Amino acid sequence: MSPPDGNKPVSRSAAGSVGSPADARGFLDLLEPIRDSLYRYALRNAWGDDQAGDILQEAVMTAWREFHRFEAGTNFKAWMFRILINSIYRLNKKVARQGGPQLDGVHEEQHSDVDRASDWFSILQSPEKLNDLLDERLVQALDKLGTDERQCLLLRLLEDFSYKDIAAMMDIPVGTAMSHVHRGRIKLRDELAALAVEHGLLKESA
Amino acid sequence: MDCKSARSHLNMYLDAALDAPTTAQLDQHLNDCDACAAQFDAETQIEAKLAAALSQPEMPPALWSQLRASVNEDALLGSGGETLPASMPISDTAQPGWKLPVSLAAAAAVAIAVWGYWPVQVDRDYAAFWQTEVPTMLAAGPATDAMVDEAEIVAYLKAQYGLAMAESKTETQGHPVTVDFAQTADFAGRRGIQIRVKCCRRPVMVTLLKASESSNLPEAVNAVVNKARQSTSKQGELNVGVQSIGDYEAIIISEHKLDGMRTFFKRADA
To answer: Among A11, A12, A28, A44, which would you mutate to test the B interface (most chain B Cβ atoms within 10 Å of its Cβ)?
Structure first.
């Protein structure tokens, strides 16, 4: 056994996929500023509420083991999101195979009339709550979009990726990414209009 | 540009993806047409509102700690990462000259692959452990990726180990105890969490090890730890104590007396 030398990097494994502690620090330094973005994206696209952690664990370890393929100076966030999106597909499929929920449509009509009445009552009690309510409903409206529409819209709206980046991440043509965002916006606008009518913010005829 | 044409550009407008000439034409139309201007304004506001509403929550600190620990563990152990116990992260955060030696990491990875467990005997001389290495660790500051936020440390210990810390002096026999930082570290070749606190302003190093690991320490180290399980053991200037907490043992080391520390950690559900 060779003498211990704690400062020498761990040699790469036969598969060439595992980096040294110094690589790990570099990787984590790149990951830290985008961790909240990754978490939110996983949360919005996971089929199970408690699945975001599993998705991130898989995505981060996959990225770490592929990190030697990442070209320094290129867009780390786009590279990482592409891996995250693959992990989401993979784990969501697993949930589906185990008889878990299907995403599209499952979030519909979560609020009964009773809930709406109590929502409205709470607004009357404290009008400043309307903002929170709108925020919450925005998220629900987003959940009603198709998977591709939601993903493209989130990547564009929240993460400010270019259509070219989005297309590369989702493995779809640029035009398709644009139309997903466009359709997502239209559907979202319809949902929000319905919400506004529901809360008397708009006249029915508007 | 007419209204119909202007509205056909809405999507690209929201994306700020229009070319300069089209943007100029559109701006001209929005200046002239109140209806379109109002719609574009509302769309922009909705877009901003949606982005704001969706720009939360933040990643929980415990999850971030867990991800970091997984990556660090994997880095140190080469390809062996997946076969390690999930709840005991290892990292490269020990002080220089104090890391798990590279050759050992490689040997460990092989041992895990071949026998499926971490080797019990570590090929290293620990004769100077208590005299030199422990005082060096005790004097060292936090590693670059140590957790320094007390709330984050509390959340991490609770999530990963089901541990809680005393919240007031009454729980530590009147000794004021503050938390400085926490990091994954190597203790005589065993992976653990090192929590650094101050008791009465004197530094204390607490190393949290799985009981199965702390009962298999190298002989020179074990002799002292075993004695400390009965009562505080004196090693030169150092006081060494051991507290058993569920499946873990906390090895507590300080030049200060350990009275206040013995009751500092507890099971979170206790």
So the answer is: A28
Q: Of A97, A129, A148, which residue sits at a domain end?
A: A97
A11 assigned to some structural domain: no
How many domains, in total, are found in chain A?
Answer: 2
Q: Is the ipTM of this complex over 0.85?
A: no
Pairing state of beta strands B202-210 and B233-235? unpaired
> Which of A73, A97, A121 is at the close of a domain?
A97
pLDDT in tens, chain A (206 residues): 333 333 333 333 333 456 777 788 889 999 999 999 999 999 888 876 678 898 999 999 999 988 988 988 889 999 999 999 988 888 877 666 665 544 443 333 333 343 444 443 443 444 444 455 566 677 777 778 888 898 999 899 888 888 889 999 888 999 999 999 988 888 877 776 676 666 665 544 33
Identify which of B207, B68, B70 has the alpha carbon closest to the alpha carbon of residue B147: B68
Q: Burial level of B164, CB count in 10 A (0-12/13-18/19+)?
A: middle
Q: Which of residues 82-101 of B touch A (CB under 8 A)?
A: 91-92, 94, 96-101
